[in-house]
Amino acid sequence: MDLLLQMLLSLQQLDDRLSAIGQKKREIPERIQTMEQAFGEEKKHLEEHRQRLKETSLRQRSLEKQLQENAEERKKKQKRLLEVKTNEEYKALLKEIEYAKQADSETEDEILVLLEEIDSLEKTLEEKEESTRKNEEKLIGEKKRLEREIPEIDKEYQFLQHERKTVCAELDPDVLNDYEKIRANRAGQAVVTVRKEVCPGCHMQVPPQTINEVLQTGEIRHCQYCQRILYCELEESA
Question: Which residue of 116, 135, 206, 214 shows the fewest CB atoms closer than 10 Å?
Fold first, then answer.
């Protein structure tokens, strides 16, 4: 195979690797941001759970205070029973006391429900706090790991850029210009390796004559459909 096509294939492989590394580097901040957003949502839900527990506890304490106040009020009404002078007043006061007792009974039932809810919320809160703590440790560790990758990625990127410049310097400017134009117009893929007489760039059939010309002369030939530069291997042509 002609050295020119080998160099163009090497250049394509370098560009593929540079593109992949560049994409990886761009993805690191995005991955970190995604993880931080997810953890932020988890913390938000944790705070909402704490707030619900707080509000439920406040409601329970408020009802207990109300029961105490009602109990004092009933004591006063019980004393007034001894002071009323008519049956009508006596019966009315007894009804008030009975209604108050019924209301207190309903309040006590609500308190019992609230106490059960508080117990459940406290248990769930403990689980959520432990889960959030572990996830925060995991987030910190993953961020550090990803951030440590950046210098290594930069180092490899710079090395490949140097290799690319070396290859480009050895290519004829017109050939390099042709390569760059095709690469810009074909999503970064200027050189393709023909497989089973098919161009992998556009998946169209490559004439056997074109494959033979590439193998025999080593000259640059383009896919007649997508204009990509064709690289052929003897094993595939068989």
Answer: 116
